[in-house]
What we know:
Elements: E1 9-12, E2 17-19, E3 25-27, H1 33-42, E4 60-63, H2 65-70, H3 79-83, H4 93-100, E5 104-105, E6 113-121, E7 124-131, H5 151-164, H6 172-183, E8 187-191, E9 198-202, E10 240-242, H7 250-253, E11 257-262, H8 266-270, E12 276-277, E13 282-285, E14 295-300, E15 324-328, H9 329-337, E16 346-349, E17 353-354, H10 358-374, H11 383-392, H12 398-417, H13 443-465, E18 473-475, E19 478-483
Parallel strand pairs: 1-4, 4-7
Antiparallel strand pairs: 1-2, 2-3, 5-6, 6-7, 8-9, 10-18, 11-19, 12-17, 13-16, 14-15, 14-16, 18-19
Helix pairs in contact: 5-12, 6-12, 9-13, 10-12
Amino acid sequence: MPPMSFGPLLVLDGDGTAYGVGGLVLDCPARTIPQLVAWTLEQPVGAPALNRNGMPADPLVVLTEAAAERFGLPARLEGHEQRAGLRLEDDHPIVKQITRAKWKLTLRGFGPWARVYRPAKAGARQCVQFALPSWGALDARAWPGVSDMTAPEIARVLGLYAARVTTPRGTTAVTGLELMTSLRPPTRAVRNDTTGAWESAHNPGSLGTAPVDCAPPEAPPEHPLAQGWTKGFINEEVFQWVRDVDLVDGGEVTLACALGLDVNAAFLAASSRINVGLTSPVHVLNPVFDKKVPGCWLTDLSHINLDPRLPNPFTPSGQRPTGPAWYETHTLAYAQELGHNVNPTEAYIRTTSGAYLDPWHDRLKAALLDTMASLGVRADMEPADLLAAMERLPDQDPGLRAVLAAIKATAKGGIGQLRKRATGLRYIPGERWPALDRPTWRPDIRAAIISKARVNMHRKMLKMASAGLFPLAVLSDCVVYPAP
């Protein structure tokens, strides 16, 4: 039987029936988690690598609530387990069962998403991932209604997501981040000219295998580099602005309605062809601004006069800057586009850069458009037909709508993971936290995406203003206009 011919995942129900993609139905004889791991690895379950330099996806087994009880797991994590970080205690019988069978768990233990593995054997991975919807693995905000679906329907929904995006590897945010690495693996195999042997080498265009520190002004307040830093921090966030009531004119006041216009997948769109740094920042004094160089720049934009009926594009609050501040490259490039001089006094720039996110954007965009088309909404529709199709969307296939929501959450959450903050009651500001040790902890890339998205929003509003239409409020990717 060909490898991976059963598809990327199985959904196991309480009677021992395992459901896969394409209507696949199997009888699973396993009665313990170690037996289930061994049985799964005997099946052709998994997914090929998304990049020729990448790794195939490990098989995913989803346990329904009834299946969890079948294997001796609690139907839900409650009480002490719930308070202890959503995972079983190390002395739980199931955890002991796994370790006695010579299997291992990752540091996050056995929780809503768990990995059970042994070291690779003869170059082949021995790892099975588990997801337990009844423990909260499929968050209702990202996977609306999926936890309550039947096992075959869960297999259909997750299988479609896996085909169009990737096999889920945790929350949609975690999956979004992992997708970046899957599409731009940090290493590639190269042949040693001397020995003729294959060796691992840096993959050009990737973030590599080593984490890099951000620039001090790019750090969140709890970061070690932020301690004692007194020159201010970059604040590239989404718009949150309301127009001053004194600037609402008489004609607008007489209009009966307010209309919200939402930009579909604004942050995903902003990641398209975006040039981001691939290395550590370099500190420069009195630099000449270059819109092609990613980085953060210290300059004063408070002298720029703009129409107060629009949010100021240089700040998330939409208010005029009050003095020198740190800005991401796209924000300053937009100031130049509007006809103003930019004279930074200091900068942290990345001298090596590239379109790291291109394959990530392209895959998620294709998944989004394909799923919208499956729901009857196509990009080539006439405006009236498009609006009618969008109005019918809430009545369409719930499974497809869940996939659509998950794709959007993957894009948005993956970007958020680039600046994952410290968590935990025991965390002390100034200490490092685990996310800092991965190459994909890159707050500068997140800042670039949000800066570009905010600039894109302002550019659209400026075009509307040329027709005499001014927003009442803006929140993230939604603009509210007065309407009759």
